[in-house]
Amino acid sequence: MLRSILLACLGGAIGSGLRVVITTFVIERFGTAFPYATMGINIVGSFFIGFVIELARTREGFSPDARLFLTAGILGGFTTFSAFSYDALTLMNNREMLLTLAYVVGSVAIGIAAAHWGVSLVRAMAAR
Q1: Using 50, 70 and 90 to split pLDDT, how confident is the model at 81?
Q2: What range does the domain containing 108 cover?
Q3: Burial level of 34, CB count in 10 A (0-12/13-18/19+)?
Q4: Other C-beta atoms within 10 Å of 52: how many?
Q5: Which of 41, 51, 114, 128 is the least buried, fewest Cβ under 10 Å from its Cβ?
Q6: Tens digits of residue pLDDT in 62-75
Q7: For residue 128, pLDDT beyond 90
Q8: pTM score above 0.70
């Protein structure tokens, strides 16, 4: 159990650091009028969760420790559902209803599609 906790914590630190770097980069270029960074991070994270889990499920030699490190660790630290929720609330409180709708629907729908694409990519790779 301690090993699993340490793997998740180490991966989480890496994922959180990546999130800060990407968020800072995006905000410096696009501003804060729309939460592009949070939305993009959640979509990319959704893709990689699908990719990693399908890879772990279908490939021999993919250890449970690697899966834990990547999914609960790096991707858990990287993705930002709590930030997503707060950003949506902020848009709502600013009476930006169209932007709120675009953000929520876009994040969820594209996030699910990205997870599907991750799974599909692993399956396509396996078919070769």
Answers
A1: confident
A2: 2-127
A3: middle
A4: 21
A5: 128
A6: 999 999 999 999 99
A7: no
A8: yes
- What token pair was written down for 36? 């592009």
Instruction: Compute the C-alpha angle 46/65/58, nearest 5°.
Output: 60
Per residue, the 3-state secondary structure of 39-50, as one string, reads HHHHHHHHHHHH
> Can you tell me the mean pLDDT for 108-118?
95
Average pLDDT over residues 94-103: 96
Q: Report CA torsion sign: 24, 26, 32, 36.
A: negative
Total residue length of the chain: 128
Rg (CA), the chain: 16
Return all residues near 53 (Cβ < 8 A) that are at least 6 apart.
Answer: 67, 71, 119
Residue where the block lists tokens 């889990």? 53
Q: Which amino acid is at 39?
A: M
